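Sample A.
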Amino acid sequence: MSLGRGLQLLKSHLRLTQGINHGFTAHTLSRALSSVPAGTVTHLAEQFRNCIWDRNTTDRPSAQLKEAYTALQDAVTDSPSQDDIDAIQQVITWDNIVDTLQVLATSKVHEDHIFLQNVLEYMHQLIGNHITSEQHTAILQGLAEARQTQALWRWFRVMATRPGEVSPTLDQLHIFLEYCVYEKKWKYMWKAVSLSQLHCKPTNETFKLLLWGIFREPMDHHREVHKVIKSICHSRLPFDSSILALIVRGLNRLGLVSQAAEAAKNYRAYVRPGHTSTARREHDSELARASAIRGRDVATKMYHSLRLRGFEASQDTLMALLESVWDIDSLVHWEKELGVKAEPCAWAILIRNALDTGSPEAAMEIYRQARAIGINPEYDVAYPVVRALCSTAPTRHSYDSSIDQALQIYEDYLATLQKRGTSRRSNTPTITAQRVILCSTLLRALSSSSNKAKYFPIAVDLLTGLRKDRVPLDSAIHTSILILLMRTSSSFAEAFHVYELFREHQQASLGARGFSAALNTFASLKFDNMTIPPWKDYFQIIKDMQRAGYRYTPRIYTNLLHQISRIARRHSADIAIKRQLSRVVVQIHKSLSLDPTITPDTACWNQLMDTYQRIQHYEGMHKVWEMLYVSGRVDNASLSIILDACSFSNDMRTARQVYKTFRGRFNTNNWYSWIECLCRLGRFDEGARLVCLEMGKSIPEVQPDEECVRILLKFAQSGKVLGQMRARIQQYLPELWQKVSESGDM
């Protein structure tokens, strides 16, 4: 496996923290764009980039991206000046464009795909070059990770016709085939191979993926395997014993024993021989078929007969005989009969066969026996066992025991590299990819264990070992492992230590996305109800991001404020903690007001206002409200927040002003907030009159519903006026009363 495939496999199992939805609507975006002075291309580019960064926190990412992009394109016109191009290139990178293309490619709206072509054609003028093969790879990987089958197939099929005319590479074909294997999308696999044959020649690895796909879905397996064998022959590929083993093992598992023997015979007959003669391969096939169908004793007699005629057994013979067994007794028997000592590749066949039967315990025992007699744990021996151990989690004790065994096998693997004279720092691409795959499997297991105190330092040691041996990790993989280890931490101090370790990495810088991911992850961590996050560390990450030359979006502050609100809810009665939180929120407010590099959107100001309300800092809350009101940026979320705050702070005067000024803009949630505000402040008569007599009548734009009735009843009970409230609702809203009564919410 190539390094690129190894990294892709690692990436496919790791997910970046995506943040939370803060209500960044298309209406908010339109208002933000319209507030930018005409001709300020930099600001429009920043708005477009911010939409890209916020694509995972909104319900309609493609619509918002189109709106922001169109505004930028209109401002620049069809003939951009060099100043415009320079301004845009300082803000937008090809990584941003790749993210945009992924969003558009996953859309089910036809117009979005037309718009995608426009982006590809026009961004060439702005960014300065066409999309490259590496960027196509990033898009394919992103679509595969998002499990967007149709979008992935569409992109692979037409990528050669996109601007730049990049044809699919072998690695890109394998990305697509791997996805089809794991998602059981066999119908696309032959199409992809046929399509790509014009551009890249398939290899044995390609046909292994096809075989895996065949054995994972219901079909005429024997016919499809024969089709693969013929294609391998037409491609003039060399004989590969692992393909033979895969064919036999796959058909045997399906109960097609005679077909397995026939397919093995055909593969040996059709595929171009390597160093092994055709006659020897035929004898190996006869022995394997006899052992699988008629038993070991018959195969032993056949071998003695062949030996009398001059046949000499080899490691290939032993491997062929082991294709249908998984017990050590058979291996020992054939070693003795053939006079051939089993090499690691033969032990690997036994281990894989044991795992195929669903027996990881048997596979582990085979591994122990192999180690006991001095067999080195090559990758083919080590990885299947590590993967099996890390995939079982019945109980904490047994899972931790499995992780410990997997870690020991990894150490055995590293010792094997040293024993055979391979310098860790001079690893080949294959060894490098193997280490990345092993480490990613282990890191996933470590992060899944609840025993963080034990496994956090081990996870850090794994990463440190990769760094020490200069195993290259690209920025995306680097960021993924960062998030994984931060989540594995048992304290904020450990999480920040992980961040510092990655920040100082020289081979793969964090980049804007990495810093944002670190901030989002740090803000979302929760260890116990008594731990208050060290906000100075959060602000230090922001400073590091600025120092590295990256700008950030308001969402960074919004996430932090959301975390503070969550803590405030948990400690609603703790005055000391609220004072501590107040100092942090005031500092954030000051940063948002004075930082010239950031333009907070309404969602950010709303979150700040809500956080002030949660910590009962009403003076700060009113300052934010007044700013939103004066600047004309109040939205419906703002209205609900200020009404809730008024009800908790006993501020009826402000609440009435809000109602009088904005009643015409109220949505359903705003009406609920106003009714609740009236009830919290003891205005039960006014609340009842509003719901029973005014809504739907003198206020025709809104009708009372069941939730309005529930709010009245809930607060009437605590206000000791429940009987009167029930009587009014029964009299004036009998249908709603009936519905609420039947639901049991009285």
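Sample B.
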Amino acid sequence: MLEVKAIMNSSVEDVIGFKCCNLPDQNLEIQVKNAGEKPVKALSRFVLDAGEKQVELTTVYPPGGQVIQPGEAAAFYCNMDDEEWKLYSSITAFDDQGGSFSAAL
């Protein structure tokens, strides 16, 4: 089971942009925690939902997903427009076994 938390305008944006990875404007941080008892591979794919409108986030860093051990968390990053962000009410994460895990924003 994955728990998902999204943080808009995360302070990590500066680290990714300048100190570590040379990836500017990665202002949306998505934290994914493995609340289960076995390792889970969380995919680098998320869906934001605004009722009738959905957007799939596929240009996420790091690409390829991450294996998360039980009780541990991993973070993903992407660019999101501040005004567009206000439209969405939930986010969904996916694992490599076909599972989907949603959380309110």
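B remarks: The mean pLDDT is 91. The longest helix spans residues 12-20.
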